[in-house]
Amino acid sequence: MPAKITEVVVKDIRFPTSLEAHGSDAMHTDPDYSCAYVIIHTDSNDALEGHGPTFTIGRGTEVVVAAVEAMTFHLIGQDVQAIFDDFGGFWRKFVADSQLRWLGPEKGVVHLATAAIMNALWDLWAKREKKPLWKLLVDMDPEKLVACVDFTYISDCITREEALAILKKNSDTKHERESFLKENGFPAYTTSVGWLGYSDERIQKKCQDALKDGWTMFKMKVGANLEDDIRRAKIIRQEIGYENALMMDCNQRWGVHEAIEWMKPLAEFKPKWIEEPTSPDDVLGHAAIAKALNPLGIGVATGEHCHNRVMFKQFLQSGAMQYCQIDSCRIGGVNEILGPANGQEMSSVCEYVDHLREHFVYPVEMKGPNYLPPTKPGYSTELKPGSIEDHLYPNGRVWEELRKEGKIKNSFGSFSFLCFNNFYKFCIFLFGLLFHFQLLSLGHLCITHSQTGL
Amino acid sequence: MPAKITEVVVKDIRFPTSLEAHGSDAMHTDPDYSCAYVIIHTDSNDALEGHGPTFTIGRGTEVVVAAVEAMTFHLIGQDVQAIFDDFGGFWRKFVADSQLRWLGPEKGVVHLATAAIMNALWDLWAKREKKPLWKLLVDMDPEKLVACVDFTYISDCITREEALAILKKNSDTKHERESFLKENGFPAYTTSVGWLGYSDERIQKKCQDALKDGWTMFKMKVGANLEDDIRRAKIIRQEIGYENALMMDCNQRWGVHEAIEWMKPLAEFKPKWIEEPTSPDDVLGHAAIAKALNPLGIGVATGEHCHNRVMFKQFLQSGAMQYCQIDSCRIGGVNEILGPANGQEMSSVCEYVDHLREHFVYPVEMKGPNYLPPTKPGYSTELKPGSIEDHLYPNGRVWEELRKEGKIKNSFGSFSFLCFNNFYKFCIFLFGLLFHFQLLSLGHLCITHSQTGL
C-alpha cells in the first residue's frame, strides 16, 4: 500500500529515575532515563505509525529534539516504500546533508537524532510487513538487507560483495538458529548486584537472589576506589563462585595507564571483561589496555558510546575491543549496525535491566535469564500513549507533580524519589538477535582484513 | 575587579554565503557561513562582555543554540576570576556534566556549544587584562597556562609536568619570537584559486592575481572527478611553477583505498598535502593513507573536523597526520587546544579567506601574504552590533529582505545571490600564533611518547 510521510512528531520524554539513583555510575551520577521519541505519520489508510526513540539521560533531551526537527524536512512527502527500497542510499543522503553534517559529521546530537528517525522508519516498515523487526530482518533477502547499508568509509574492511557472500553462506542454517532461539531465548547478564553505592550486605543479598533466579553472569561497577572494588569483588566471588561469570565496568573513569594499573590487582577475581576503561574515542588507548590485560585473561568491552561505524571499524581493526556493545540509539539506527561493526561475542550475551517495563506496549519477555524474541509487529520499542503523556518534559503530569511536591528545585536539580528504569538496553538486545541470525561473522571478516591491511 | 556572570545570551547568526557558492566544496555544496554566538555579561562596573562564536554552515545552527542554552546554568552566578584561576578544572566540570555528557561526550553539537562558551570566556579574560588574547597567553606564567588545560585521557602522551617543562624550556626565546612575528607576520596560504566550480580561465586569472599579491602557497579542491583534477592541477602548476607550494583538499570524499589510488596520478604535481582524504574519525585509515603516500612525497593534513584532544592524540600517535589543522570552534575552545594536539607544521601556515571582514569590530590585518597579530584587547572575533542584528536568523533584516525578494523559497532552500565569507579561519589563525609562541614542541613530545608506547 503506497504511503507518503505527512508528519513527523518528536517528543521530549523523561522518567525521573535519578530520584532513586538506579542506573547511576561514576560518570553519570543522576540519570533521568529519557528519550527523544519520534512518531512518523503517513497518508496511508492503514493508520500505521513508526515509533522510534533515541536514549538520553535527562538534561539536553530538548537539544536532540531540536536536531530531529531540523532534519524532518528530509522526510516529509517521501514515499516510505521508496525509502525502504534503497534504505542505504536514503541513509547516506540523510547523514550527508550538506549543512547539517557540519554539526557532526555522524556523531553526537545529530547522530542521536538520526538514530531516532531511522528507528522509527524501521518500526514502520516492520509494522507494514506485520512482523517483529528481527523477523523482518531475518527473512529479508540478502541483497535487500545489504542495500540497507551505507558502506561509505568502511569498504577498506568490508565491501557490499563480501557482506553479501557472508549472508548467503550462512543462510542455510538460518532456520535452525531461529528455532533454537525461539525455544531457548537469548542469554542475558545482570548488573543489579554491583552498583557502586550498595552496602556489602545488599551486594550479598542481591547475589543470592540473582542466583536463585538462575543468573550465571554478573556485572559490577568499579573505578571510584580501588580498595572498595577489591572488597566488593571478593564478596561477589564468594557468593557466585568461579563457575559463574563476573564482568567489570568503569564507565570511562580512567586514563590509559591508570586503567592497566587499576585492573592488575582485580585480575585475581577473574573478570571476563573491563568495560569502557577510558575515553570511548580512544581506539589506540583501548588497544594498549587490551594488549596489557590480555595476559591476565581480561578482555576489553566497549561500544555504548562508540559513535559510528568508522569507530567500530577501527576498534575491531586494532584489537581494541574483544566485546562489542553496539547501540542502535547511539549510532545511526539499524542501518549502521548492519554494516561493519560486530564483535566476536556481541551476540553471545546482552545486558538486562528490568525497569520501565510497564511503559512499553509490548514489554520484553524473559525465559529465566534469557530474552525471548518479540512477537508483535514492529520494533517493540513503542511506549504506551499514557506513559508518553505523563512523562512529557517539562509539563507532563509526573513532572508537574514533582514540582508541586517540591521534589524538583529547578529544571536542573537532582532529586531523590520514585523509580523507573532502562529501555534502551532493549534496543541493543534486538540487535543481538539480529546478529545471531544473520551477521555473526561479518566482524571476523572485518578484523581479518584489517589486521593484514595495517 | 570582581565580576559575577549575570547573563549568557546566545544568537543564531547566519550569512547567506551560499548565494554565490563561495567556500563550497564537494561535501558542503551550499554553506551559509553562520555561528552560534555567545555573549557573556557580568555585574562588573567595567561593562566588559565576553563574545565567543562557534562556526556552523546554516541549517542546524539553532540546535547549537539550544545546546548553549542547556549549558548556561553552569555559568550563571559564577565569579569569572575563580573560573580563570582554575580554568582547566572548570572546563572539566563543564564537559563532564553528568547528564549532558551523554549527548557527546565531548563531540558534536555539545562540544561546538562548549567551544562558543569557552571562547567567550577567553575573550572576556583578555579584555579584562586589556590585551589581545594571543598576548594574554604569551605573557602567562607557564604554571597558570598549564592550569587551563584538562589532561584527562591524554596523560599517557603528555602530563602536566611534561607540558610545564616544555614551556619553561622555551621561555628564554619567547621575546625574540614575539618581535619577529610582530615585524613579519604569520604566513598564510590562499584557497581562492582552486574552488571546484571555477572555469580553467578563471583558475589561470586567479593564479596570476594571487602571484602578483605575493602569495607563495596555493590550495585546490579535488575529489569530484579525477580527469578534471589532473587538468586543473596542470593549469595551476603552469601558472605558479614548482617553486611555490600546492596543496590539495578533498573534504572527506573518499574511502581509504580510493584516497590512495586517486592521489597516485596527482603525485606528479607534487602536492605538499592531501587534506581530509577520508572520514575525519578514521585515525587508522589516515595512517594507512599517510604510509602509502609518504613515498610519493605527499603528507596528510586533517583536523578541521577532528572533534577533541583524544582524537588529535591518536592522529599524532599513529603518524596519521603530518599537518595538524586544529580549530578552536570545533574542539572545546582554547583550553583544549592548549593540551595535547599540535602538529609539526601547524604553526607554519594558516589558511586565508578574506570574506566577512567588514562584519568584525577588529578585522584581521595582513602584511602581504602574512597575518599580523591582533592588537586590540580580547579575542578579536567580536562582530559589529549592526552585523549581528542584520543577520539574525530567521528574522534579521538580511533574511527578511531575501524572503521578500523571493530568494529564499523556505528556510531550507539553497539560493544564489550576495556574497560574504569566512571568519572561523580567523579563529584558527589566532591559535597558530599561540603555538608559535608557546607550544610548538608539545606535539613532538606527544608523538615521541606514543610511538614508543604502542
UniProtKB/TrEMBL annotation, chains A, B:
Q: What are the names of the required cofactors?
A: Mg(2+)
Query: Which molecular function terms from Gene Ontology are attached?
Result: hydro-lyase activity; magnesium ion binding
GO BP = amino acid catabolic process; carbohydrate catabolic process
Q: Where is the Mandelate racemase/muconate lactonizing enzyme C-terminal domain?
A: 200-296
In terms of superkingdom, the source organism counts as: Eukaryota
Q: Which UniProt keywords apply?
A: Magnesium, Metal-binding
Which InterPro entries does the UniProt entry name for this protein? Enolase-like_C_sf, Enolase-like_N, Enolase_C-like, Mandel_Rmase/mucon_lact_enz_CS, Mandelate_racemase_C, Mandelate_racemase_N_dom, RHMD-like
Q: Which Pfam families match?
A: MR_MLE_C (PF13378), MR_MLE_N (PF02746)
Name the UniProt record assigns to this protein: Putative mitochondrial enolase superfamily member 1
